[in-house]
Design brief:
Elements (H helix, E strand, L loop, with lengths): L1 E6 L3 H10 L7 E7 L2 H11 L3 E5 L7 H11 L4 E6 L4 H9 L4 E4 L4 H26 L5 H4 L2 H13 L6 H8 L3 H12 L3 H19 L4 H7 L5 H12 L3 H8 L7
Parallel strand pairs: 1-2, 1-3, 3-4, 4-5
Helix pairs in contact: 2-3, 7-10, 8-9
């Protein structure tokens, strides 16, 4: 379910978009609206939407300036500009600057559906790629190295424990520096990186099931606390656990 914010200074157009479009059929929902660019920025900060539908020209902060602000902040919200024929050149420039697309006003519902479908598919592919990258370390080459294979097996079986390279090195009868070097040479990753990535993969089905609170998922996946879990989650999936949950359409209680 895509979460949408609409920024449009013309009240009639904005209300028309909010109330007349069949958002459910497009697997989307409007989570916020704004009448100018400054208000839109506040709503985006609060709601963290997947998509912003923004008028090119708005009071206080134009759509282009708003897009530039979001880009500077590192926002991952996809921007779709609403434009008239007179502003067509602005829309083309916006796309060159990284906007996902643009739509001519009055907005055609089938065109909007097409654009949102493209954004959803792009996000799905990116997410699949990110999640696949979490587990690409368990390669045949790695499993041919006995010490490395033992480490990978230990991570998979004991990821909930307080594991360290020193503990595993002692169990294997080798030095921690030697084991660290072999692990890096074979997998391209450090022990802490491998462990963190595996723990994140284990957290995803727990999050999606929706039976545990987020901090409980963090504990179940082997993280010391929610803050660490959130930081590692964002490092590898480039979003917070809560934003990921909203994108998956899972409702959670508070932490």
């Amino acid at each position: 379910m895509l979460r949408i914010v609409i920024a449009e200074d013309e009240a009639m157009i904005r209300r028309g978009l909010v109330e007349t479009m069949d958002w459910a059929a497009m697997h989307a929902e409007v989570v916020g609206e704004a009448a100018d660019g400054v208000a839109a920025l506040e709503v985006i900060h609060e709601k963290q939407p997947d998509v912003l539908l923004a008028d090119i020209r708005m009071p206080r902060l134009s759509g282009l300036d708003l897009a530039e602000r979001l880009h500077e902040e590192g926002s991952r919200t996809a921007i779709v500009f609403l434009t008239s024929y007179a502003e067509f050149s602005y829309a083309q420039r916006a796309v060159r600057l990284g906007a996902a697309d643009y739509l001519l006003k009055p907005v055609d519902e089938s065109e909007l559906a097409r654009v949102l479908l493209g954004i959803a598919e792009s996000r799905r592919k990116k997410k699949d790629g990110q999640q696949a990258a979490l587990t690409d370390w368990s390669t045949e080459n790695a499993m041919k190295q006995p010490y490395v294979a033992d480490v990978l097996m230990a991570i998979q079986k004991r990821y909930r424990e307080r594991l360290s390279i020193e503990i595993l090195a002692e169990e294997a009868g080798v030095s921690a520096s030697y084991l660290s070097r072999k692990l890096k040479e074979t997998t391209g990753h450090t022990f802490s990186g491998l462990l963190a990535r595996y723990r994140i993969t284990q957290s995803l089905p727990l999050l999606k099931a929706g039976r545990l609170r987020v901090y409980e998922v963090a504990e179940a996946a082997g993280f010391a606390d929610y803050k660490t879990f959130s930081q590692v989650f964002k490092k590898y999936l480039h979003t917070s656990p809560r934003t990921w949950l909203s994108q998956e359409g899972v409702l959670h209680e508070t932490i």
